[in-house]
Amino acid sequence: MSEPDAVRKRGEEGTLGPVLKKTGERQAEFRTRSGIPVERVYLPASEESAFAERVGFPGEYPYTRGIHPTMYRGQLWTIRQYAGAGTAEESNLRFRFLLDQGQTGLSVAFDLPTQLGLDSDDPEAAGEVGQVGVAIDSLRDMEVLFEGIPLDRVSTSMTINAPAAILVAMYVAVGERQGVPPPALAGTVQNDILKEYVARGTYIFPPRPSLRLAGDLIAYCVEQLPKFNPISISGYHMREAGATAIEEIAFTFANAAAYIREVAARGIPVDRFAPRISWIFNTHSDFFEEVAKYRALRRLWARLMRERFGATDPRSWMLRTHTQTGGSTLTAQQPENNIVRATLQALAAVLGGVQSLALSCYDEALALPTEAAQRLAVRTQQILAHESGVTETVDPLAGSYFVEALTDQLERRAESLLTEVEALGGAVVAIERGLMQKAIQEEAYRFQQEVEAGRRIVVGINAFTDETAPPPPPLFRVNAAVADRQQTHLAALRRERDASAVTRGLADLREMARGDGNLLPPILTAVKAYATVGEICGVLREVFGTYRALDGL
């Protein structure tokens, strides 16, 4: 019998037995949010010889302990709060406010019409213009959005998917107008259309032409924007829709495999584009599972890239991730409690070794965040970075028997689920059959049943409620005139621009879309002629068609 096994046997028979007999435990079993059983006590594994192979040293394969040898001792994570609402002018003011508060990168939220390729004067955009993000109809809006913000000194993340190529083209054009050449632009675009079919729903075209568009953007950035991350593959939204941490890992990696194959099929070696792949994951409140998740993510991805996709550049093995704390964990009841939730989740993300972080603000269960709420989110990150001491050593929870065991379990279970998806034919086939969507819906339903039955406590919802709680804090309201103002700007743009240049640009795009060439050059030409997001997407709708979700999903 090994020493750890002997210690466990002695403890369970001696110390533990009488206590269990006398008082028992709070419940019959304990499980993580993903359903992994939590043992009472964790001891060293009986076989420790795999430590170097599975845990190892920070900055070395398989990067369990972090992608950099010094981690936060060398450079802190990027503070990148998600922001944008109303017009470009209003969002520009919010960006400047956040930068003044010490934020170190920008993250742009676009309104739903922009995300769905609709102009602000489209009847289908009614009631949504500028409501959950900034309204961007044309290059003119983008110019205003970044006015006074030097793009050679600030990196920008853009959460945009179906029209991602259009917004990146606008960013390139704004950079050129500022005197910043494309190779000097730093930033990230989400460009992860596959997860939109699974969880978020802001798709336009069917999956296969959408995958082509995503691949076109990646291929273009490889050649023209070497400092720009052309895709940020997202587990965040699947987690918000109800996925477990295991499903978040597996389904996100399945989507990643589809993108890698799409780009590799164009003859681009994996090591030319894989180092620029970035990620966004969600951090919920099951603290140790979330810490372990990031360690498991890095290890599994490194192994997949080296063994399955044949990457030989160590930069291709490194998983660089942004994270945002879980918006779906916030409650409208007792909203001040959300400050604690977001802080707990942020600490888990930092202990997990992320490269960039945004906190969902405490008032976001009620409305878009106020300036005060976003300032508090920035200050929370600054306190973690400069006062808590958690940045003083690399991967401080390494060696915890519990954390190492959870890391192993998450990796094993996620890889098993990923293998199932790949065996079906990969992410696109699984999406077309609705398999990922169904799995997430079933998990969301199971979780809600647990909450409603009281088996899972949510403070202020099904326990520790308070009918005498004070009213909610003052909320942010989008200017009621935003749609009228945006439509006025759009009408003026259409009068003033060179209509013939727009017509030529859209015609060239239509012709290219009917073939198999890269769509970024004609999109950039149309953007510079001040063609609108709606006009460009309208041409692509003509060629590619539109996607309708499967019945029941």
Describe this entry's structure for a reader.
It is built from 22 helices and 10 strands. The protein has 553 residues and is α/β, with parallel strands linked by helices. It has 2 domains: 51-453, Alpha-Beta Barrel (TIM Barrel); 482-544, no CATH class. The strands form 2 sheets. Strands 1-10-9-8-7 form a 5-stranded parallel beta sheet. A 5-stranded parallel beta sheet has the order 2-3-4-5-6, covered by helices on one side. Strand 2, helix 3 (88-100) and strand 3 form a beta-alpha-beta unit. Helix 6 crosses helix 21, helix 10 runs parallel beside helix 12 and helix 12 runs parallel beside helix 14. The longest helix is centred in the C-terminal third of the chain and has 24 residues, at 401-424. The protein is globular and about 85 Å long. The termini are far apart.
CATH class of the largest domain: Alpha Beta
The whole-number mean of residue pLDDT values reads: 95
CATH-derived topology of the largest domain:
TIM Barrel
Q: Which homologous superfamily in CATH is the superfamily of the largest domain? A: Methylmalonyl-CoA mutase
**Biggest pleated-sheet summary:** 5 strands, parallel
Number-wise, the strands total: 10
- How many domains make up the coordinates? 2
- Overall outline: globular
Tally of alpha and pi helices: 22
Distance between the termini: 52 Å
Strand content: 5-15%
Unreliable segments of 5+ consecutive residues: none
**Which class do the helix and strand fractions yield?**
alpha/beta
Kindly state the percentage of residues in helix: 40-55%
Return Rg in Å. Answer: 24 Å
